[in-house]
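Progress narrative, Year 2. Work on DHA2 family efflux MFS transporter permease subunit from Corticibacter populi advanced from sequence curation to structure prediction during this period.
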Amino acid sequence: MSPIRFTTEERLLLWLVALGFFMQSLDATIVNTALPSIAASLAESPLRMQSAVVAYALTMAALIPASGWLADRFGTRRIFTLAALLFALGSLACALAPSLGWLVAARVLQGLGGALLLPVGRLAVLRSLPREKFLEAMSFVAIPGLMGQLLGPALGGWLVEALSWHWIFLINLPVGLLGAWAATRWMPDLRDGTSGALDLAGFAMLTMAMVCISLSVDGLGGLGFRHVTVLVLLLAGLLALAAYWLHAARAPRPLFAPSLFAVQSLRVGMLGNLFARIGSGAMPYMIPLLMQLNMGYSPAQAGMLMLPMALASMASKPLVTRLIHRHGYRRVLIANTLLLGLLIIGFALMTPGQPLWLRVAQMMVFGAVNSMQFTSMNTVTLKDLGPHQASGGNSMLSMVQMLGMGFGVAVAAALIAAFQQWLGTPDPHQSLQAFRGAFVCIGVVTMLSAGIFWQLDADVPQAGGASASAGTNR
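Result:
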């Protein structure tokens, strides 16, 4: 088979979408390493900074369901340009933040732009390129995203030490402005006049459910809500979720049709993604904090420690396809989820005197297993969807991925705060035991989520089946 060749216009579009994916993925990881330095500058506790991470992930999760409609209604060129400008403006506001409240609001603005960059760019690629080029095109776009995840923690730590924490946001300005300018020249202006009206009622209910449930979890940690406030928020979120489900069952064009859940693998995959990602989302937040607060690491050293995890994550991608072909999704996901939970519990055994080689090996093993978890969960969720279900299923998966990441950070912060209170250690620099308790609890929750994957049908995919969706890396 001859190699796929892209025209000049197609290649420019792919580079543009890749740039957007790079910005989004870089900013999702670069902040974690800088949190202690940002906290010191804003006179906050480092263990109260999770709201800056949760706000970004939650905003992205809330806006992703509307991204396709916005592109269809206003055109891919206009929305992608607006997304890049919002991302740059939000980054500037983050760098100028004088308080945690300002920073959280700026991260929301940044998340509004980030939520639109990849979905709208991916939609433009899907509609502009012939179908036989789509797989190679998305593989091309995915590489900068992986590089963003790889470079984020180390770059964030280096910028904090070499310059200041403000530069982890300021570096987005030229990239965002360049992306906006390039979009006006090379992004095709694609629309779909048959898209109809946005399901505003469903969008409002779903957004309210995500915000209230996230705030209820975050309220147990850094926000310091009283238990009655947490309970009211949780009930409001569950009520909004139930209302959306009833609404979607009767709406002519809901955001996510209930018929999607008639697909057994999607039901299991979505629930598994949500709960298993709590552990995966918590680790990039907890490890840099633990290293800097209790292990004596500098920001740059803590960021560099995340590199082995990212490298092992990329290297393990081909292995998961062979394992699924041999053992099937059900066995692989059950075993891998249990192993992932055990590895998370293993981080509770970390000590300041641990040799560096052992710490690096621990990070590499976790990165490889975590990557196999992502690929397996994402693939099993989408593998049985028909052509008319693929768009809705993919958007829902993207939303659940960001929601799971936000929940992971919020749960981790709540657990650390709870263990600090129980152990009587309010000083963040004496919180090693609180981190250990949080690692154990999150690891146990991850292991229990293996029970969700137990519900999968026992199957061994046909050749090529596992790789069709494996480009969904996160």
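Residues 262-474 form a domain with the Growth Hormone; Chain: A; fold (CATH 1.20.1250.20). The chain has a mean pLDDT of 82.
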